[in-house]
Automatic annotation (TrEMBL), chain A:
InterPro entries: HprK-rel_A, P-loop_NTPase. This is Hpr(Ser) kinase/phosphatase. It comes from Sulfurirhabdus autotrophica. Keywords: Kinase, Transferase. It comes from the Bacteria. The keyword Transferase applies. GO terms for molecular function: kinase activity.
From TrEMBL, chain B:
It comes from the Bacteria. It comes from Sulfurirhabdus autotrophica. This is Putative nucleotidyltransferase-like protein. Keywords: Transferase. One of its GO terms (molecular function) is transferase activity. InterPro entries: NTP_transf_5.
């Protein structure tokens, strides 16, 4: 049973009462909220996601609710809680859905050390995956959204999960977070892409989320092996340029982009060297998405 | 006893229960353990009983994840202890570890599956300045910069304000006693230092003697105002008692030392709640002896109502309508025990009206 099998009022009342158990990649998140923007956006962006079979177990229990104070009428707010604990300060109420997304990322990155977790997008084509690590503002999500709309299977936009057994990439297919100008860029690039209503003035500026392709969601059980690591950099007006990068430098940059590298100790080191050994590493500068797509289509498998 | 009925305590009492739990029970156990900060403890328990193979994959992932954090943390603490030893050597002082770091370095059972947020060390009061100077020279800086906070710690407390290392962000609490100067009970720290024993194979690193370790753990727990980790601390105590009870005359020594150190009351509570909640086996002699020192029965039943609730994990599944009140009452009690009323009033007044708000 998928989220789309529920009509709006069923979904709303489920979220209000016993909660929705959503299957995203290897995780089951139990969500409770009576906020209408939360249920609308879940209906829109998670339509193809499965409801977890209800055996009573969930990995994460989260709630989104207005704080119980007088702010109800004056600049209303929303609080995210992780099984009744409150890890973040409240945000304005209209940021409830982005807060759910950030909160779910936090649940995974802070409590799932059975994986090496990278702050990177990851997509797959013909059994080979490309990892796009990038600090905010490098255009990683824009490129990721574009590739996902041109036949690449989306594994994740934010969190690359690497399995300890064999180094396979575990999909965690969820909405792609787009910020500021990239919202309009993706609308123009792919008019059929489903985007949530943009939310202004968040810590990351204006934010909207793109619904992941149904085929990507359907293949959430299918892991992929890494073949390329590409560090993207968006530069207005720049020539499209793909340059091979020495593995030593890629290694150091990857550490910067890992959530729990040092926490895994020696195991983290071995997993990271393993990953770098398997992949060809590139720096990629781009300003035109169509040209970027063409470059990615021509990536050659690494000679191992 | 409210806490004894919670799922996590049932599991601590009978780890075998975990072989046949439903997924719904696993869901609850993971949640309660996370709130009690005992996920890795549960992992260690399963490992010890060779039960890891019989646990469903999903809950196991959470236990393993917590275990990964604990392992990394233990490595960091060992390195910290190494650096502290070198720093104190320059002041010609041995490193006497308390609580968590002591369990870890002396390889005692409570260290299994347990995270300790900072390293606690004990130095003679006369050497406090030298110890502090040595730590500052080696990169640890005072954390509380507010002049009142500094004075409060130095005049009335049993430790200096926490010191943080400027590169590793690790925190050290430098103690000269195990209870504040102003507290109701007055253990003599010189006796603790005198009886301290070498930990492992480094003579310069010491830990308290077994009976003192138990007394310190008891004193700490039953003077503690914030009991979010109460169950975890009680579990530490339980595993210490089970482990040390194999030492001949341990119970007699514990009894004698509690009287000598003026710590009978906290020891009574510790043994009482260990046995009531975690079914810790106690010797007949200590039960007899403690009976003579236990508070009047109305007080014991009030304390049972309060501690029975406050020693549960902070989770809705472990709370009832009285839990909030119980936590609040024990918070007030802890201040009451640690400071005379007049001083407490003055301190709270200052905190409310004069202190800079934390940023």
């Amino acid at each position: 049973m998928n989220v789309s099998d529920l009509n709006h009022s069923e979904l709303r009342s489920l979220l209000k009462s016993t909660g929705l158990t959503l299957q995203t990649g290897p995780f089951i998140t139990h969500i409770q909220s009576s906020i209408s923007s939360v249920s609308e956006n879940i209906a829109l962006l998670y339509a193809d996601h499965a409801l977890a079979e209800d055996n009573g177990f969930a990995d994460f229990h989260v709630q989104l609710a207005p704080p119980g104070n007088l702010r109800h009428w004056f600049r209303p707010q929303v609080l995210f809680s992780f099984d009744n604990r409150i890890p973040f300060k409240p945000l304005p109420l209209d940021q409830a859905f982005p807060m759910l997304e950030w909160g779910m990322n936090w649940c995974v990155s802070g409590h799932s050390h059975q994986y090496l977790i990278l702050h990177a997008a990851v997509l797959e084509m013909q059994g080979r995956a490309v990892i796009l690590p990038a600090p905010p503002g490098s255009g990683k999500s824009t490129l990721c959204a574009a590739l996902a709309n041109r036949g690449w299977r989306l594994l994740s936009d934010e969190l690359t999960l690497i399995s300890k057994a064999g180094g396979a990439l575990v999909p965690l297919c969820r909405p792609v977070s787009l910020k500021n100008q990239s919202i309009q860029v993706i609308r123009n690039f792919e008019p059929t892409a489903v985007l949530s209503r943009a939310v202004r003035d968040t810590v990351k500026g204006t934010v909207a989320h793109m619904k992941p392709p149904a085929t990507s969601v359907a293949q959430s059980q299918l892991t992929a092996m890494p073949a390329w690591i590409v560090f993207p950099k968006y530069q207005a007006g720049a020539e499209t340029q793909l340059a091979m990068q020495p593995k030593s430098r890629a290694f150091m940059q990857m550490i910067e982009n890992a959530f729990n590298y040092s926490l895994l100790g020696a195991q983290g080191f071995h997993m990271m060297t393993d990953l770098i050994d398997r992949c060809d590493c590139y720096d990629f500068t781009y300003s035109n998405l169509d040209e970027a797509i063409a470059v990615f289509a021509d990536l050659t498998p690494p000679a191992i | 006893m409210k806490a004894a009925k919670t799922l996590i305590v049932q599991v601590l009492r009978q780890p075998d229960k975990m072989q046949s739990m439903s997924m719904k029970e696993w869901d609850l156990l993971i949640r309660q353990s996370r709130h009690a900060d005992m996920l890795a403890h549960i992992y260690a328990l399963l490992e010890q009983k060779n039960l890891l193979a019989s646990i469903p994959t999903k809950p196991l992932a959470h236990l393993e994840s917590a275990n990964t954090v604990v392992k990394r943390h233990a490595q960091a603490i060992r390195w910290e202890v190494h650096n502290l030893r070198k720093a104190l050597e320059t002041a010609d002082l041995p490193l006497v570890l308390l609580k968590g770091a002591a369990y870890l370095i002396a390889e005692l059972p409570p260290a299994r599956g347990r995270i300790f947020s900072d390293v606690d060390i004990l130095v003679p009061k006369a050497k406090l300045n030298q110890a502090e100077a040595a730590l500052r020279l080696h990169g640890w800086d005072a954390s509380h910069h507010d002049a009142y906070d500094q004075r409060y710690y130095r005049t009335w407390m049993h430790e200096l304000p926490p010191m943080m290392h400027n590169q590793r962000q690790s925190v050290v609490d430098l103690h000269h006693n195990i209870l504040p100067e102003t507290a109701r009970f007055h253990p003599d720290p010189a006796k603790l230092l005198e009886s301290a024993i070498s930990a492992g194979n480094t003579p310069q690193i010491k830990v308290l003697a077994p009976v003192d370790m138990v007394l310190h753990s008891a004193t700490h727990l039953f003077h503690e105002g914030e009991l979010e980790h109460g169950l975890r601390d009680l579990t530490d105590m339980d595993s210490l008692l089970r482990y040390f009870s194999s030492i001949p005359s341990f119970w007699e020594d514990l009894d004698a030392r509690a009287k000598e150190m003026d710590l009978v009351r906290p020891l009574f509570y510790a043994l009482h709640y260990c046995s009531e909640i975690l079914e810790t086996p106690l010797s007949a002699t200590i039960i007899q002896s403690m009976k003579r020192f236990q508070p009047a029965w109305p007080l014991v039943s009030i304390m049972d109502a309060l501690y029975g609730r406050a020693l549960s994990p902070v989770h809705p599944s472990c709370s009832d309508w009285l839990t909030g009140f119980a936590r609040w009452a024990l918070y007030i009690r802890s201040h009451w025990l640690r400071m005379p009323a007049g001083l407490l009033a003055r301190h709270l007044f200052h905190k409310a009206f004069y202190s800079k708000k934390p940023e």
